[in-house]
Amino acid sequence: MLRITAPAQDVDALLAELRERVLEELDYRREAANQTLFADFYAGHPTICVPHVIGELSTRRIVTSELAAGSRFADLADLSQDERDVAAETIYRFVFRSLYELHAFNGDPHPGNYLFHGGGKVTFLDFGLVKHFTMDELHPLMQMARNLCVRQDPEEFRRSMETAGFLVPGAPLSTETVVEHLAVFYATIREPGALTIRPDYSSAVVRRFFDVRSPVAGYVSIPRSYVVLQRINLGLFAVLGELEATRDWRSIAEEIWPFVQGPPSTPIGEAERGWLASRRAASGVR
After folding, report:
1. CA count, 13 A, side-chain hemisphere, 132
2. How confident is the model at residue 155 (pLDDT cuts 50, 70, 90)?
3. CA–CA separation, 107 vs 40, rounded Å?
4. Are 57 and 64 spatial neighbours (Cβ–Cβ below 8 Å)?
5. Is the Cα torsion angle 273, 279, 282, 286 positive or negative in sign?
6. 130 phi and psi, to 5 degrees?
7. Predicted local distance difference test score (pLDDT) of residue 42
8. Which of the residues 61, 120, 232, 273 has an alpha carbon 20 to 30 A from that of 163?
9. What pLDDT, in 10s, does the model give residues 68-89?
């Protein structure tokens, strides 16, 4: 099906990547190491909590971690929209702070992996499907966001898409067509201002990517290194859409983007700035 809907896609590489990630997810020693990495990184964070692994009670066949209690995703339906918004903000910050600072992406962002405590506090569970990135892999992603959203340079955005392998170099398409087709992935962060993520947003993004009627369809693909990142569209934005979360996502992104490092834009951002400062001071980083 992929060879039909995305002719430029290297299907064998995509399947190899998925196979490796699934096999990793069955390795509980690796999962324990992943969870420890995230727990140590987010220790002391004002709204993000990752339970610590209890090493002496963990083996190849089982992971034991600290007990975490909280409300489930379905319980959020009984809470105010403001509570849903701040919970969504924490989930968003967790995903992208992890990607850009920890260089890791927890590729299983679905409702069953969250516990909610009110005031935006969220506990994150299940670290079996984690993708680790090198700076060489992250750099093209940062370039794409910077060229489209910050520099507003369509030609450079196109070149960065080609460099990353998302677009065939020299494809017989106008840059305007390329941007119109692919910029949907950045719809929540292209402009500042409050924006509500609707339930159909993630499915619309996926439909756009695999729209065989589009002139771009024959020239786009998902490089192997970024296959798991597509779970952002399938998982993260599906969760935020279910919450119908409203935030200034662009301003929050600017706080997290290494090439901007903008000022705090929300109360959670203010609290996070203090956590970042203390964390960097403890590690000797200015």
Report:
1. 11
2. very high
3. 19
4. yes
5. negative
6. -115, 130
7. 97
8. 232
9. 999 999 999 889 999 999 999 9
In 3D, which of 109, 123, 85 has the Cα closest to residue 232? 109
- Those residues with Cβ within 8 angstroms of residue 21's Cβ, 6 or more apart along the chain or in another chain: 107, 129, 131, 227, 228
Task: Report which of 249, 181, 265 is spatially closest to residue 219, judged by C-alpha positions.
Answer: 181
Counting every residue, how long is the chain?
286
10: which 2 tokens? 């290297």
Instruction: Name the percent of the chain in helix, strand, coil, to the closest 5.
Output: 55, 10, 35
CA distance 34 to 30: 6
Query: Count of CB atoms within 10 A of residue 205's CB?
Result: 18
Q: Which two tokens stand for residue 104?
A: 């890791």
Residue type, 227: V
Residue 69 phi/psi, 5° resolution?
-120, 150
Cα distance between residue 48 and residue 268, in whole Å:
10
Amino acid at 166: F
**Amino acid residing at 47:** T
Yes or no: say if 139 and 156 are a contact pair by the CB < 8 Å rule: no
Phi, psi of 122 (to 5 degrees): -135, 135
Task: Report angle CA 210, 216, 221 to the nearest 5 degrees.
Answer: 55
Q: How far is CA 62 from the centre of its chain?
A: 27
Angle between helices 175-182 and 154-164 (to 10 degrees): 70
**Is there a contact between 50 and 39 (Cβ–Cβ < 8 Å)?**
yes
Distance of CA 117 to the CA centre of its chain: 22
To the question of pTM greater than 0.85 for the whole model, the response is yes
